[in-house]
Amino acid sequence: MTEIISSNKNDKIKYLKKLYSSSKRKKKGKFVLEGFRLIKQAYQSDAKFDYLFVTDSFAKSREYQEIISDSKLKDKEFLITENLLNELSDTINPQGIIAVVSEINYKIDEIVNNSEKILVLDRIQDPGNLGTIIRTAAASGFDAIISLKGTVDIYNLKVLRATAGAIFNIDFLNKLDYNMFNKYLKNDLANYQLVCSDPISENYYHKVNYDNKVILVIGNEGNGIRNDLLDKSDLKIKIPLKNGIESINAAMAAGILMYQINTK
Fold first, then answer.
1. β-strand 214-219 against 235-237: which pairing, if any?
2. Does 129 lie in the same domain as 46?
3. Is residue 100 classed as helix, strand or coil in its secondary structure?
4. Which residue of 17, 121, 167, 196 has the fewest CB atoms within a 10 Å radius of its CB?
5. Residue 33's domain is classified under what CATH number?
6. What is the pLDDT of residue 75?
7. Three-class DSSP category at 237
8. Angle CA 163–122–231, to nearest 5
9. 4-29, pLDDT tens digit by residue?
């Protein structure tokens, strides 16, 4: 790396800027990562990198050498001025590094073959909630996540930041069509116990039995799980709430239920 990119008219920078648009990102099958921790997690999980944009000062750091020590990435790196990187970044402190990475495409048979505990997200809207749920799913030992269409995009930058890199530690299907999910329920996923979080259930989450193979469904923050999916459930569960509280945060509820299911 000798030349330092300083202009937003550079072709690689134009390409990077397009990927900050969700529609263009999806069309290209790429996503943007900002900051050392996320990029290191991607690197360690063998994600496919297109570009590494790094400032001169960060390129000299010990942290960066942990990434670039692999010669496979050396032809992907480009120096960029601090001002231009900060201008492009969605993060207040991007830590001197931005990467373009190919989307990860898991298939349903990979998830079924590798998973006993699957989390299904039905129209989760808040990026912070989704990121926290992904991080907690990985930490609690769930094997995979299926997000249904209507859920915020897993590759949203706010979601990625909230996962703290856990997105690379768990298998997932992103924005699966609900009709396709129903087909999977009848076939590939037919031998899983379908468990739905439902505040009007009579079953408390810690007083029921769970099968070895479980699909846990968490619904939209305001409207919960769609009725059609609730009707298909094998078990509906709720978390006991006191002091007049009617509901708790979706990410908090998901964490409580996932840890319970994985310790029964």
1. unpaired
2. no
3. strand
4. 17
5. 3.30.1330.30
6. 86
7. strand
8. 145
9. 999 999 999 999 999 999 899 999 99
Phi/psi at 111 (5° precision) = -65, -45
pLDDT digits (tens, 9 = 90+) for 157-211: 999 999 999 999 999 999 999 999 999 999 999 999 999 999 999 999 999 999 9
Q: Which domain holds residue 181?
A: 108-263
Question: What is the distance of C-alpha 155 from the center of its chain?
Answer: 7
Cα separations in angstroms, 50 against 32, 37, 47, 229: 10, 18, 10, 39
122 and 249 in a single domain? The answer is: yes
User: Span 94-111, mean pLDDT?
Assistant: 93
Contact 38/161 with Cβ under 8 angstroms?
Answer: yes
129 and 55 part of one domain: no
* Mean pLDDT, all residues of the chain: 94
CA-wise closest residue to 38 among 114, 135, 118: 135
pLDDT in tens, 26-71: 999 999 999 999 999 999 898 999 999 999 999 999 888 877 776 6
Task: Kindly give, in sequence order, each residue whose CB lies less than 8 Å from that of residue 65, ignoring residues fewer than 6 positions away.
Answer: none
Instruction: Tell which of 102, 126, 159 closes a domain.
Output: 102
- Based on the domain organization, do 112 and 93 belong to the same domain? no
Residue with tokens 């790429």, as numbered in its chain: 30
Does the pLDDT of residue 215 top 70, yes or no? Answer: yes
Last residue of a domain, one of 79, 102, 125: 102
Distance CA 244, CA 250 (A): 18
Q: How many domains does the chain have?
A: 2
* DSSP output for 9-40: TSHHHHHHHHTTSHHHHHHHTEEEEESHHHHH
